[in-house]
Amino acid sequence: MPKKHFVLERGRKAPLPLILDIPDKTVTIQEVLPILFDIADRTFIRTYQELEPDRSVTCGPGCCHCCRQLVPATDHEALYMMDVMRTLPEDHRKRVEQRYAEGIEKLRNAGLLDGILDFLDNRVHKVEEYKAIQKLYWDLTINCPFLEDESCSIHPHRPIACRQYSVTSPPELCARVFTDAKLAEIHHPVDLGGALAGFDGENARGTVIVPILFARLYEERLRGREEPRLEAERMVARFIDLAGMYTEK
């Protein structure tokens, strides 16, 4: 694949040069998600390199409290994860599907499912309401369907929100995220998760969020959409340009 040069603007931080392998063909956004994940990883690594000397990331294998939150993935990533799920060995795939079913059933039994679906479809930009829903979800202790042995079983394919969330505080505090615990979250200068949620593969759009647990519920609807197709270089360039606008103020 030919290598292409880009620059990601990072607000008050120095821009990040990127040299990326870009296929020479027309693609949908799902087909370039691995490239966007690579951009995210490079961006977040740069943030970690810029941390003060006495701070370091404390997230790691076996620390999975964030995997029990209502993780705000995008519609693009929801479809991508469904594709990944179907490539898993049969036993693994069946366990993931079972956890999807059990999680949705927990929400239904708690009387929360319809309200969350209505929120995702109609009011997802309401930040305070989303925080309230996240707390209700957390209280049910629903594991991410891909969580196995306290680690992500599809780690290379995880959504940008999972890559973006990190702390420098003791991991045990994350178990009390919705209490009085003071987490030292790392704030990246670029919100790549937000940029992806606001990107349709061609242009900027209203935010679309499909949390990981809801991917199977939304899949049929999402598969029925007509997705933009662009030359891969042009699509990646447009995403990088948009992401440069999702910077800290």
What can be said about this structure in brief?
This protein is mainly alpha-helical and 249 residues long.
Q: H/E order of the elements?
A: EEEHHHHHEEHHHEH
> What is the tally of beta strands?
6
Rg to the nearest angstrom? 18 Å
What portion of residues belong to β-strands?
5-15%
Strand order, main sheet: write it out: 1-2
Assembly status: single chain
- Compute the number of structural domains: 1
Distance between the termini: 36 Å
Uncertain runs are none
Structural class estimated from helices and strands = mainly alpha
- Rounded mean pLDDT score: 92
Which percent bin holds the helix content?
40-55%
Tell the overall outline.
globular
Number of helices, counting only DSSP H or I runs of 4 residues or more: 9
